[in-house]
Amino acid sequence: MEYVVAALVGFFFWTFAEYALHAWGGHKPKGRTEGSREHLRHHSKPDYFTPWTKKLLLAVPVLSALFLITAPLFGMGAAGCFVAGFAAGWRTYEFVHRDLHVHAPRTFYGRWARRHHFHHHFTRPFMNHGVTSPIWDFVFRTYERPVVVRVPRRHAPKLPWLLDGGQIADSLTGDFELV
Q1: Is 86 exposed, middle or buried (0-12, 13-18, 19+ CB in 10 A)?
Q2: How many angstroms separate the Cα of 62 from the Cα of each of 44, 57, 67, 68, 159?
Q3: What pTM was estimated for this model as a whole?
Q4: DSSP string, 50-100
Q5: How far apart are CA 176 and CA 83, in angstroms?
């Protein structure tokens, strides 16, 4: 049971890391760091994603450091489960984030997450930093409920799920509009 709890705590801890990396690592440095430049490039080109090799070069030392910090505190087994939970959260984020950009929503969550995330991308980049969850946006008061997301026409072709015949797909007209 201890290991299951450690994995769940690691997964939850990822949600904070996701928020922190996005808000304080991606936006706050305003392009002065490599991570911030990669993130801002993604904002300017919504079909651009940091290459997996760069992500792995970050993941290995981060996950190793987490293990080295938590092992003396909680034991190797619990630390390993914590790190595995954190890594699972990170992988979930990567999957969800890419899915938001490249596929049409298929669930209520998918529809909500696209509106939440693209409100951040195209309307208020200093709001809605949690991509997979708004938990830390509520904590840090950066949550803003999107109504209709205004997508610049120049970005719409980079979101192929959004358009049907050059216009917003009928199923998405209440969520998005071209500007």
Answers
A1: buried
A2: 27, 9, 9, 10, 31
A3: 0.92
A4: --HHHHHHHHHHHHHHHHHHHHHHH-HHHHHHHHHHHHHHHHHHHHHHHHH
A5: 38
Tokens standing for residue 55:
């992500």
Neighbours of 91 (CB within 10 A): 12
Distance CA 118, CA 114 (A): 6
Asked whether 159 and 48 are in contact (CB, 8 A), the reply is no
Residue 49 CA neighbour count, 13 Å, CB half: 16
CA angle 114, 115, 121 (to 5 degrees): 85
97-139 pLDDT per residue, tens: 999 999 999 999 999 999 999 999 999 999 999 999 999 999 9
Beta-carbon contacts of 120 under 8 Å, excluding residues fewer than 6 positions away, are: 127, 128, 129
Q: Residue 51 carries which side chain, given as an amino acid letter?
A: P
